[in-house]
Amino acid sequence: MTKYEPNFFVPCDKLRNTTLNPVLCKDEPLKAGDAVMNFINDFLSQEQKDIVILDQNKAEILPGKLQEKVQIAALSNGTLILKTNSSVWRAEISAKKTNIVAKCNDILGKIAVKTVKVG
To answer: Which helix (H) or strand (E) holds 73?
Structure first.
């Protein structure tokens, strides 16, 4: 009796020099991070992809306590929208808008963020 193997599993040695992406191999399981990145690349818009990258690098973008108190909510038409519940943190963000924009664009490697709004 032959063991059933789904047709999307392919021996990895046959795929080493190909450009197929994503590939599930018999001898190498797909890592969770790779699966997430494949989903991101296939189904999200460029602004949504940029938000994921910015959220992963939140520690570099927001200094000190802002990392804990502020959430990156959206990126729309060059406007980065940050959420916080405190007027103190809103004032802190307003004072550092220029630095936040510069760090976001450095991380993304392009000018995607032009201004910051706080909600």
So the answer is: strand 71-76
CATH code linked to domain 45-118: 3.30.300
Whether the per-residue pLDDT at 22 is higher than 60: the answer is no
Q: pTM, whole model, 2 decimals?
A: 0.65
Per-residue pLDDT for 7 more than 90? Answer: no
Residue 48's SS3 state is helix
Q: Which residues lie below 8 Å from residue 38, measured CB to CB, with a gap of 6+?
A: 21, 22
Query: Which residues of the chain form CATH 3.30.300?
Result: 45-118
Asked if pLDDT for residue 82 goes beyond 50, the answer is: yes
Neighbours of 73 (CB within 10 A): 16
User: CB pairs under 8 A, 24+ apart, for 87-93?
Assistant: 89/65, 90/118, 92/66, 93/66, 93/118
